[in-house]
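Dear Dr. V.,

Thank you for agreeing to look over these. As mentioned in my earlier message, I'm a first-year student in the group and I'm still getting used to reading structure tokens, so any feedback on how I've presented them would be very welcome. I ran two proteins. I've put each sequence directly above its structure. The first is here:
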Amino acid sequence: MSKSFDVVVIGAGPGGYIAAIRAAQLGFNVACIDAWKNASGGPAPGGTCTNVGCIPSKALLQSSEYFEHAKLHFSEHGISASNVKIDVPKMIGRKDAVVKQNNDGILYLFKKNKVSFFHGQGSFVGATESGYEIKVSGATEETLLGKQVIVATGSSPRALPGVPFDEELVLSNDGALRMGAVPKRLGLIGSGVIGLEMGSVWRRLGAEVTILEALPTFLGAADEQIAKEAKKAFDKQGLKIALGVKVDEVKKTGRGAKAALTIAYTDAQGAAQTLEVDKLIVSIGRVPHTAGLNAEAVGLQLDERGAIVVDADCKTNLPGVWAVGDVVRGPMLAHKAEEEGVAVAERIAGQHGHVNFGTIPWVIYTSPEIAWVGRTEQQLKADGVRYKAGTFPFLANGRARALGDTTGMVKMLADADTDEILGVHIIGPMASELIAEAVVAMEFKASSEDIARICHAHPSLSEATKEAALAVDKRTLNF
């Protein structure tokens, strides 16, 4: 006998669990299915973000940053700390505890909002007059009937062709977060968000880190001026980043504890090079995860990338079936998935859910942090948009000086005719938090003059945003 629900959500990552909660808030009878397991085999909702992505990586970034501060920067504050050591297993244990807190928090939210949770793999069985049959394959097998279905199955790491992940020598983001000791030599393929964040963690802890990037430019998605500033900072820290690289072969050498890898690659000048590493993290992007969904049973349309095809409202080709997050088009960002999840739940309720792709912020949690929203200077030039630019360095910000963290700047781009803010780009301390003001401003179509006229607390890092807005009109007050 099938259990019937108004809405069945497949996947409990950021898009799925948020969609389920919002649908329940709107009065629907909701089920959410998720297959993630913790170490003891119990449910671990939260998807990639909570289990092997956003949350655990931030925990390790924080731990490694504290370690580096204690070693290199405490003395600047008059604090003596000798013989500073890192206990990697304890650090990993703390990361695991943070992950579990988030897993348990989601289970609590399901209970609070009366969402029925089913632990197992969710897959389509077929369509009926009343909706869709969904099979749950877990400790016990069940069949659910959903009048509406939201697919939020996320994404999986892309492997290097011919070099599968073994999570011992060749690591995905999962293995990169579970290393029990600091490798002497760490290689990374891909200088995107995961590569830079994981490279930063293990470099701070003592690994010699080399990043191989296929693209000829560094951080091509970011504003060029910000990317150059970031490259300069990472070079100074000791991250070795080689651009324009073609990986030719990855070969295992040695056995047991002495096992290592040799990477043969061609550099940007066309010269053959080799790199010996003890561990290799491959972070060359992610692919939509539809394995096990049995999409063909109901004729759910996928594109050539394996992503579920949706329209602007996240509707699939099937009536009553929606899809959100990494498994559909658009940036693979947890907060984008959340916004889509809320919007779809509201659309099912007959409301007008809304997601503005133009104001989705991007963040890289390195040190310095990098964050941006809106268009870059090069995009505006390519689009033929007349614009004005204003920048303000953290070197001239009182709070940044007090923190001892003055690397970077805030950059604001505004329409030359209307002064509407078109993009804000930040590299520096707490950029991940500062970008929120820019998102709000752009969502309300604020001008640079609006930000320039708003009183900002002193001393605060946010004053750099105000000063960048003043700089658009060439009237900074502190630089």
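The second protein is here, in the same arrangement:
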Amino acid sequence: MTKRFDVLVIGAGPGGYIASIRAAQLGFSVGCVEKWKTPRGEPALGGTCLNVGCIPSKALLESSENYERVVRKLGEHGIVAQQVTVDVAKMLARKDRIVAKMTGGIATLFKKNKIEWLQGHGRFVSGGDVIKIEVTGDAGAQTVEAKHVIIATGSKARRLAGIEVDNVVIADNEGALSFDSVPKRLGVIGAGVIGLELGSVWRRLGAQVTLLEALPDFLPAADHAVSKEAWKLFTREQGLDIRLGVRILGAKRSGKGVTVDYEDDQGRQSLECDRLIVSVGRVPNTDGLGLEAVGLSVDARGFIEVDEHCRTKVPNVYAIGDVVRGPMLAHKAEDEGVMVAERIAGQAGHVNYDAIPWVIYTAPEIAWVGKTEQQLKSEGVEYRSGRFPFSINGRALGQGEVAGFVKILADARTDRVLGVHIVGTHASELIAEATMAMEFSASSEDIARICHPHPSLSEAVREAALAVDRRALNM
């Protein structure tokens, strides 16, 4: 007998599993198709984010930051440690335990919410009032039916022509999370979010890291003040060698590791490294979905076209997360998953795309939400700016993490917050207050009038809000 669901979700990454849970909460019968397997061949939920992305990378970032604190930072606290070593195998094992706990937790949530996990690859067979999906797994193929389908298949690492990734010596983000030792010389192609995070992990553990970036500017999507501060911190203080405006010609393995050939404004150059990470962005994972069977296609960049509520042009077929327009962020996918489930239920789910925070989990962290100063200038919007440094924040001083600042941009006429930009310790946590403020259309005065705990890093947000009106109290 053919299985039939009210809602079938293809993909169990953050967008897919959240969409499944919310749909089940709303009373729908839900099936979720997921083919992911661990290196040991075990089926797993969570997609790229939980298995080889957000979660494992943050585990390694924390481990490497702790090592750097012991080796380089605890001395000023009067704590002296000698003969400190790194056990990479133990570090990786801890990372794997965290991943297993998180992915196992999703399986528990599926059972709790009576969501059926269909293990295998999903492909459209036909559309209409009842949509048919073929699921092919280890046990063979089966066809299931659904009234509504949500495509949440995520993204995969972009490849560079002529560079073969083996995830041992030449790695993408997945292989870079599993190096069995600290390379003496590490090359990274791409100085974006993933390149900076992974390069930071291995630099702290002792690698000499060189990043090759095609763009002429560093972190151009960030506010210029933030990218300028980050450049100073990463290059001058931390020793990352970041080379901008390069054109990669090729990379090949040699007896000594990897040789990367590239061109810059000085001409043809070569970089010798022991291991290489290729981190040049991600592309939608839409291969093999059989979209044509229901009248769907992808655009020139591989994205599925949707409206503001993630509806495709085919009735009852939706797409969310990395396969559609907008930033490739797990939390954006989650919010879209909730919105679509609620829309199917006849509710008014929505996503405010102007209030989605961005975070780069380096040390210090970088986070922002809303417009940058350069965007406001290009749009002709009159604004006021307030800024407060962590160097005179009591909690930051106590922690010994004084780099960076908080910057708030507000409309010159209405005082409504248009953007908040942070570079500093725990920026990923602090940006949540700014996101909430923007979601509720707060003014900088609203933030400035809220009592913040003292001493706390959050006081820097309040002081930046006060600085918009030129009345910061501690500067």
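From my reading of the second output: Residues 4-157+283-351 form a domain with the FAD/NAD(P)-binding domain fold (CATH 3.50.50.60). The chain has twelve helices and 22 strands. Does that match how you would interpret it?

Kind regards,
E.
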